[in-house]
Amino acid sequence: MAHTLSQYGISGIIADAFAHPFVTVTTRLQVQGVGGGLYGGLTYKGILDAIGSMMRAEGSLAFFQGYGAVLVGSAPGRALYLGAYDIAKGRLGDGHNSLGNVIAGSFAQFVGSMFWTPMDVIKERLQVQGQVIQKNEIVKVKQQHKNSFEAFAQIVAREGVLGLYRTYPIHQLACLPFSGIFFAVYERSKDLCINAGYADAEDNLYLEAELCSGMVAASIAAVATNPLDVLKTRMQVNHEESRHSQEPANCFIPVCSYAAMP
């Protein structure tokens, strides 16, 4: 069991290293347009514009802001997440029960979030700092946190330990459905691949089938839960002095207003 958990943790660190630049761009796009907030000036026309603006104004290292928090929290979080899923799945139909897969995935997310919630808060606050656009000119702003460890210390000093977990409920509201949908779709896709002959004699999927199953499941889950993910991100990047913006309703209204603008 310990060997399996360590494999889960190492694979999580590697996967997060490749995904982190894209997650940084996504985070910046999700928080832009928040009227009156610290990050209200972040304005990008789209993914390519965000990438180009960040490269010109901040350099390539901007895409890896917050990765220190990921290095610390990803391995134990991923190990708990997948370990909890394996345990729950074994007791709820061993992957052959759709409802059982949803419950197992949600349970895994609940357990993994003990590490992921504070990691997300630190990571996202670092990801969004560094650049605003004023009067069509890109200007850099003073960074509040130099690195993940300083961010952790400052958040705890200013907001207490609860500052790292204040968004735990909305984190669950966004991530529990994602994990439930992901594993339900993944296990169904896995069964289809096995029946189609894309697995060995022990029902282990071939690499291409494994990748396709994971991509399909992640895409469907992401589309279904993206609105909740936007709310989660906007709440997590707000500070103690903006606590009124950490209420879901106070984030939801500006999101809808901004999205409705021509």
From TrEMBL:
SUPFAM superfamilies: Mitochondrial carrier. GO terms for cellular component: membrane. PROSITE patterns: SOLCAR (PS50920). Solcar repeats lie at residues 3-91, 96-192. InterPro entries: MCP, MCP_dom_sf, MCP_transmembrane. One of its GO terms (biological process) is transmembrane transport. It is a multi-pass membrane protein. Keywords: Membrane, Repeat, Transmembrane, Transmembrane helix, Transport. Gene3D superfamilies: Mitochondrial carrier domain. It is found in: Membrane. Belongs to the mitochondrial carrier (TC 2.A.29) family. This is Mitochondrial substrate carrier family protein. It comes from Karlodinium veneficum. The lineage of its organism: Eukaryota, Sar, Alveolata, Dinophyceae, Gymnodiniales.
